[in-house]
Write a structure and sequence with these properties.
Length: 98
């Protein structure tokens, strides 16, 4: 079985499976942002270690639905599925049911 694990560096990394932004999501976005804003499901996360060897755990958890923008995201295929990776700090927010 092959799995994806983001590489730690100077920031927490996250791998997302991009989902379709539609009316069911009920997000109110300005028309100008709808083409640049996406939602994704967290598939994997990483922690990072600073220069003083202090480890910072990821803030996101597998399965969470998040909002992100195309800028800063790197798209790739893995085992026939499309994924996105980026720094955790580039995530705009977590989408939760109210």
């Amino acid at each position: 079985m092959k799995i994806l694990i983001p590489i730690s560096g100077k920031s927490n990394r996250v791998i997302l499976r991009q989902e379709t932004l539609n009316e069911e999501t009920n997000l109110m976005l300005p028309e100008s942002q709808k083409k640049e804003t996406f939602i994704g499901v967290v598939e994997s996360t990483s922690s990072w270690v600073n220069d003083n060897n202090v480890e910072f755990p990821p803030l996101l958890q597998k399965g969470q639905l998040v909002l992100f923008q195309r800028m800063g995201a790197y798209r790739f295929d893995f085992l026939g599925k499309e994924f996105v990776t980026m720094r955790e700090s580039e995530i705009i927010g977590i989408i939760i049911e109210n």
